[in-house]
Amino acid sequence: MTQQDLSATAALLGLIVLQLIMLSALYAGIPPIATPLFGIAPFIGAAIAAAIAAVVLLPVSTGAGRALSVLATLMALVSFGPQKYFDAQFALIWPAVIAGQLAAAAILFQVVRTIRSTRNHTVTPPFDTVSAQ
Which of 17, 65, 96, 109 could make a disulfide contact with 58, Cβ separation 3.0–4.6 Å? Predict the structure, then answer.
């Protein structure tokens, strides 16, 4: 599959996720103003779409994949970030909060590690073309 195919596939999967989540919210009868900020279906749909697109574009191997991985991670931290330790319902949601934070840390670690390793390595040809002649 070409990079163009991967990009289009990621975008299409993102649209499918967004549409399914918005359709589900519509059928559930949840108006966007009935839920708190960042709990509404459009934000959650966008977060899921970004994560799926990052997976398709290879989360750390491509620039677009890394960018979407970081975006998806930051969007997930709205729901699972350290601010949730002060949530009144933390006793009920702690497994998801801790798992989400561990996953976010792993993603960010891998992205930073990949960026650092690509900056520190220069590409050298497998053989010297001038002396080989």
Answer: 65
Within a domain: residue 128?
no
For residue 129, being part of any structural domain is answered with no
Q: What is the DSSP letter of 43?
A: H
pLDDT digits (tens, 9 = 90+) for 101-132: 999 999 999 999 999 988 887 555 555 555 55
Give kind and range of the element (H or E) at residue 22.
helix 3-28
State how many domains the chain has: 1
**125 domain residue, yes or no:** no
Q: How confident is the model at residue 27 (pLDDT cuts 50, 70, 90)?
A: confident
List % helix, strand, coil for the chain (3-state, nearest 5).
Answer: 75, 0, 25
Range of the domain at 87: 3-120
- How many other CB atoms are there within 10 angstroms of residue 108's CB atom? 15
The per-residue b/e assignment along 57-87, b for 16 or more CB within 10 angstroms, e otherwise, is: bbbbebebbbebbbbbbebbbebbeeebeee
Tell me, yes or no, whether 109 lies in a domain: yes
130/112 Cα distance (integer angstroms)? 36
